[in-house]
Amino acid sequence: MGVLTNLDPAKVFQFFEEICSIPHGSGNVEQISDYLARFAADRGLFCIQDDLKNIVIVKEATPGYEEEPPVILQGHMDMVAVKKPDCDIDMTKEGLRLAVDGDKVYAEGTSLGGDDGIAVAYSLALLDSDTIKHPKLEVIITVDEEVGMDGATGIDLSMITGNRMINLDSEEEGIFLTSCAGGARVKCNITVPAKEMVGPKYTVKVGGLLGGHSGCEIQKERGNSNCLLARILFEAGAGVLSINGGLADNAIPRETVAELVVPREKELAFTTAVREAEKLISAELQSKDPGFCVKMDSDDTDKIYQAGDSREVARFLLSLPNGVQAMSAELPGLVETSLNLGILKYDAQSGKCLAEFSVRSSVESAKKALIDRLLAATELAGGCIEVTGDYPGWKYRKDSPLRDKMIALYEEMYGTLPKVEAIHAGLECGILGSKIKDLDCVSMGPDMRDIHTTEETLSISSTRRVWEYLVALLERK
Q1: Cis bond before residue 9 (omega within 30° of 0)
Q2: Share in percent of the chain as helix, strand, coil (round to 5)
């Protein structure tokens, strides 16, 4: 018996648990894609699995709905696979350990992948049903959305006949999203050569931070462990052996670890500077990210190391922008342009330093200007950048029969109007809109919290209400 067996809606949670039993982090989607292809084959449904492992499944209209416009359901099969440092799960080979706490489903020690496993589960439950009435359903499930929307970029949708699409990649019930920012991933690379240094090895770990989604929570100004380590290293110079921080470019990093070598004669100044920087940063983050802390350990043994100059690394990092760069003048409260230093790596043996960013903007020219700033700063440091996963924003559509229908039904079922909003996070709707003529699209989903983190949760009651709404929407002519 599964952990979610007794939850309602039963079919949705059954499929969600099956999805969670299959490793499906970004870049590791072959198993989950094959599972979806088998699902379609077992039910005799039309299915295309392309070379990228994207999936399209089609189910014809039920009797009486043949003349209704087809409905596209869309989500992505990959998840941001992160785990706590003490978690022993190999997320490339093992499924998640699901658990229930009151109204919440979560995964022990790892992210849950409700983003976007719940979209897949909803779609499968609809495709599996022989009682729900609906028009023709065209289900698009893409790969590697979380690392640049590569699946949406590469998918062929020439077989799609509909133009009304419900994207199920939102995380707040009662909010209908109708536009989003565009984005790109930018890798900034420089070389910081190593030289011989003698002293004990120190391990400095910046952690205790909340992290979060760099699109949904960048405006909360939570601590970025990569940026905070740069500040500490600038104040407390040392030789640097390695740096490892962050797990995904689009997740605000919670922990960064640096291995350093500190000459004996500089130990007191070094440790004093680290603790003073910790004190100042803690005061800054007292309200925004109160768990911030710095752990520092030493092996207290003098050895000869090849180490880079930590101040040179820090100077480069501090020259790079991070966080909110501009707010929208048209939509109060909406972030217009931002970037997140999600991944930081340095290795003294190679001398290579990598700073990887997720760049977002609802203004294409502002996105380009921000990428140019990263290019300029990196070239001044003697390095180069690589831009991948560049995707367009999703523009608001004034005339939307789908949106009008969804708002009317929501008011009828919930007794209140939904919020219709734009979002700073990226969605695949803009890319798919370039492939589907005259696309009319709305994004929705159940309540999820702390996506892309090990604290991620999915609301059971919200999952049920959104399911009931989705069924009613499909059944309404």
Answers
A1: yes
A2: 30, 30, 40
> Burial level of 397, CB count in 10 A (0-12/13-18/19+)?
middle
Confidence of residue 398 (pLDDT cuts 50, 70, 90): confident
Ramachandran class of 452: left when φ > 0, alpha when ψ lies in -120 to 50, beta otherwise: left
Active site residues: 78, 145
CA distances from 156 to 71, 170, 219, 452 (A): 18, 24, 35, 28
142, HSE (Cβ side, Cα atoms, 13 Å): 26
d(CA 152, CA 130): 29
Give the C-alpha distances (Å, rounded to integers) separating 238 from 174, 272, 293, 297, 378.
51, 13, 20, 14, 22
**Residue 463 CB partners (closer than 8 Å, separation 6+):** 9, 12, 13, 118, 446
Nearest to 466 by CA among 423, 400, 406: 406
| DSSP for 378-428, written as a single string | HHHTT-EEEEEEEE--B---S--HHHHHHHHHHHHHHSSPPEEEEESS--T
Whether 215 has a pLDDT exceeding 90, the answer reads no
pLDDT in tens, 72-81: 999 999 999 9
Q: List helix spans (H) across 253-382.
A: 267-284, 310-318, 364-380
